Amino acid sequence: MTNISDAHVKVYFRMEVDEDGWPPASVESLWAVDLGDGTVRLDNTPWFVRGVASGDVIRVSVDDEGLRWAGETVQASENCTIRLIVLKDGGSADRVGDLPPA
């Protein structure tokens, strides 16, 4: 992520929380650069939102409170988001045995 400047805005993504409570929030906000045409370029990596990555151009809609809500991806960047989740109580170590041989 670059340094946050006046051109940066927060973009909010709605997320479905499953029956197990994952992800742990129904909304995630990401920093983005406002491109001035109803789109933004994401400028940080999402923790929970799926299907987007830093550098993607996203269409946004602004609500009555001035919040920018994410819509469709207008242009995908060449970046991807990879998540590594380390489970408590040895959960990750237990899963190593389930991996196929290298």
Q: How many DSSP E strands? A: 5
- Shape from CA axes? globular
| Span of the ends, CA to CA | 33 Å
Number of alpha- plus pi-helical segments: 1
Radius of gyration: 17 Å
Structure commentary:
The chain has 102 residues and is mainly beta. The chain starts with 7 loop residues before the first strand and ends in a 6-residue tail after the last helix. It has a five-stranded mixed barrel with strand order 1-2-3-4-5. The protein is globular, with a radius of gyration of 17 Å. It contains one helix and five strands, in the order E-E-E-E-E-H.
Itemize the secondary structure elements and their pairings.
Blueprint: E1 8-14, E2 27-34, E3 39-42, E4 57-62, E5 68-75, H1 91-96
Parallel strand pairs: 1-5
Antiparallel strand pairs: 1-2, 2-3, 3-4, 4-5
Can I get a quick summary?
The protein has one helix at 91-96; strands spanning 8-14, 27-34, 39-42, 57-62, 68-75.
